[in-house]
Fold this protein.
Amino acid sequence: MTRIILAVLAANLLLGSSLLPAAEAATKEASNQVTLKWVGCGISKKAFMAELAAAYEKKTGVKIEIQGGGATRGIREVAANTADLGGACRYKIDGEGKETSAMLEPVAWDALAVIVHPDNPVNDITFDQIRGLYLGKITNWKQLGGNDAPIRLLARKGKISGVGRALRKLVFANYNQEFKASEFMKSTGPIEVAVVKDVNAIAVTGISSARKRNVKNLMLDGKEPSYENIRAGDYGLYRPLYLAMNKSGKNTEEVDKFIKFAHSFEGRTIIRNNGTVPYLDALKLVLKQVEQEERANERGLYQN
């Protein structure tokens, strides 16, 4: 019996020693594995980034750590080389030195959605009514065909957030337009959560994020912010979603590979399966953006 036990122990020791080089190699490979840091807008994160990063890690072994922080953080940390990748739902601001070094690659199309509580009876809104809301001219739900109750309009702080900047551009043709909201919040997530909890709240957010919340998306001039309406350009408030990178970053090669993956058939399928329109699926929207801006300029001719 003793001989048998010793033989088993010896075999285990030999087996362990034979596996040691392989284990050391695996450990060394893991220690050399690149991990990319992504920061940026919560809308991009919910629209496609989490699923896209998971699929890329499974395919290549490259891990992508995902953080939020908003579009401005996504652009500026990449420009400063404190993050490898950024997510942005707006383009760089002209003349802003903190954003100059970032390069933005459009990977998807999003839309601005006007969201309310599911129990709110209002189903539709117009461009003019959105203007009236943010100019403080519409303050009661009766003015929108709803109940006799004060409107709680929620908006982002500042003027350079992705949603706020796009709204100012597409509805007011004025990046400096002042908003008269009931409350200003520092990020999109808390705004969406507040609408989920309050039947009298209303806000504008990205449809890619809104569709994952328990909210009602209002039709805009009779058009739903649906996948097909966004893809066709029939819904009026659409905008690109970007991945930001820096050509002088230490992991530029890996970042470039990930962006190519996002544009690949597999990457576009993942984006599409999340209900978001891949950028290459609707290139005609690039030309229709000119029409968007012309309409916004026409609306901007009216007195605020």
About this structure: Residues 1-31 have pLDDT under 50 and may be disordered. DSSP finds eleven helices and twelve strands in the chain. The CA atoms of residues 80 and 98 lie 7 Å apart.
